[in-house]
Specification:
- This protein has 120 residues and is mostly helical.
């Protein structure tokens, strides 16, 4: 169901709950369309990493989600960090399979955790 939901959200261009179809949605959600996730409830610092060549979520969708979140700190970065050359930007599976994550992502992720955890 998770993969189906990702596909549904990609097609609808909405960040929403699972679409069971009109009849089941009415039973489950009391409305014909699945409800949108309320991103304004997120109030914690948030750092999102994305790949410019990700086929499952586009940069414009990451930007939209970022804009809808009310967190005190909102940052989104393309990976690898600091690399401008387009052909070197990551796709979806690169976050799992790329061998240099220890250089291209993890140090930045750990730095973000340290920065935002120590500010508490």
């Amino acid at each position: 169901m998770q993969l189906t939901q990702y596909l549904q959200m990609s097609v609808s261009n909405k960040f929403q709950k699972y679409d069971y179809g009109k009849k089941e949605n009415l039973k489950k959600y009391r409305q014909a369309e699945p409800p949108l996730y309320n991103l304004t409830n997120i109030i914690v610092p948030l750092v999102m990493y994305h790949g410019k060549h990700d086929i499952l979520i586009k940069e414009s969708q990451v930007q939209r989600i970022n804009d809808e979140i009310w967190g005190a700190v909102k940052v989104y970065k393309s990976v690898p960090i600091g690399v401008e050359e387009d052909k070197l930007q990551y796709g979806h599976n690169d976050f799992i399979w790329t061998e240099d994550l220890d250089k291209s992502l993890y140090p930045h992720l750990l730095e973000s955790l340290e920065n935002y955890m120590s500010s508490k």
